[in-house]
Design goal:
Length: about 110
């Protein structure tokens, strides 16, 4: 997707501070962190959001979760972190390429806003 911000990060056309990178998934620091640790885990495949997933994406999205946990562990927030997937405009989704926020390093409130 030539006009997708996160596809441009995957392609290396826009810089990002990558924390993890393999054939399927990358993780990079959010440019506007909302917690001491805030990174995004995204599939390299352009999927708009959860509503755009198909059964064939099950393993890929499962991997995103495992990578989120692995990177959270590596960056010292294993004891507690929040994962968020905004899905659609009403949720606050601004970038229409599936991404999982991982936030940690401070207490998290509940319910989320
Ligand atoms: P969402 O509102 O769930 O779509 O989240 C999009 C996230 O992408 C926001 O937290 C932004 O701060 C983040 N973001 C936007 N542009 C960049 C960028 N160039 N590098 C890293 N994160 C970004
Ligand atoms: Zn994309």
């Amino acid at each position: 997707m030539s006009d997708c911000l996160f596809c441009k990060i995957i392609a290396g056309d826009i810089p990002a501070e990558k924390l993890y990178d393999d054939d399927d998934v990358i993780a990079f620091r959010d440019i506007s962190p909302q917690a001491p640790q805030h990174f995004l885990v995204i599939p390299k495949k352009h999927i708009i959001n959860l509503s755009d997933m198909t059964e064939g994406d099950d393993a890929l999205v499962g991997k995103m979760m495992r990578v989120a946990a692995q990177v959270a562990d590596e960056y010292g927030i294993k004891e507690g972190y929040r994962t968020v997937i905004n899905n659609g405009a009403d949720s606050g989704q601004l970038v229409f390429h599936l991404h999982m926020h991982v936030l940690g390093g401070r207490p998290m409130g509940w319910p989320p806003g």
